[in-house]
Amino acid sequence: MARSYRVHPKYLQEVNLAWKRKSEGRKKDLAERLGLSLCLVIDKLFLKGEPVNRVNFIEICQFLGLNWREIAGVEEQEKPISSPRVGENPSKANASSASRPPIVVSNTTGDVNDVDQAINELVSTLCEMLHRLTRKAGDLVRADRTSIFLLDQHRRVLGTVVADDGEGGGLVIDIPVGKGIAGLAATSSQVINVPFDVYDDPRSEAAKNTDQKTGYRTYSLLAWPVLNKQKDLVAVVQLINKLKANHDPEDDLSRRIDRTGFTKEDEARFAKFAPSILKLLEKSQFCYQLSLKVRNNAGVNQADAFQNAKLIAQLKRQERLLRNSLNRFKLEDKSSRKQKARH
């Protein structure tokens, strides 16, 4: 499981006040500075005492000028909590150790809290969808890690809430279009295949910075832009570190990787696969944009219950549509795995 932390209950009021002081009247500015994906994690997880990946937790605390060890309570309890799997409702994670009362779901009244609940459900389903797609894509070409970056059309940023951290958890990453290898793939709409060793490539600065934060090591990389029928960018799938066919999972990463990197055969295989997930990525991108729009307070009115009720209905409808697509994908994937097992 991914190493994660949550705000200790006794510091919840302090972190909420710190965020209020930082964000009051500056939400648009902060969205530009931190990225909307990280702002979403702050609002929906961090400030509510839910598990947050260690890298993001430390980054948030540093931004707020707080001692992350103290805020996480690691000095009192050195053992970190486990992170919920992507797609799992964070409020249900670590239920055995939590003493919080169950969440009561009220009828939709147009209350802002109902909007929060609706957006949480949508984001949860979105995370599960992207998590399953990353696993499927990674398995296809034996990539050690996979990330799917959805295009934020308004800010021209590639954002993901589920960059695979290799331990069943996820990281939050935003990449400006044109920056980093994934960003360059987005700008050019061209596949970029960087063989071993990525660090020798002059475009690898972003990969090095991310590795420094996570403690991981990128050796080979395949960035694949996914375009719709109009040739507009929907997402970039980034596959990292091609693995040997018969590797020992217990070996160090440097021994498990295939130094050939991703091959032309891998590219051909992924070219056949990409169209099969296009519609799912388009739906995911729409939901991603909608969640960011709501997070940025566009359309949420504290006093207008009718307007909020309409927004809630839209969020719930999109969550149902995405959930239906997810369930179909799970069934198809299960059937495909059974067929492979027979052969």
UniProtKB/TrEMBL annotation:
SMART domains: GAF (SM00065). It holds the Pfam family GAF. Residues 79-110 are annotated as: Disordered. InterPro entries: GAF, GAF-like_dom_sf. This is GAF domain-containing protein. Residues 125-291 form the GAF domain. The lineage of its organism: Bacteria, Bacillati, Cyanobacteriota, Cyanophyceae, Oscillatoriophycideae. Residues 91-110 have a biased composition (Polar residues).
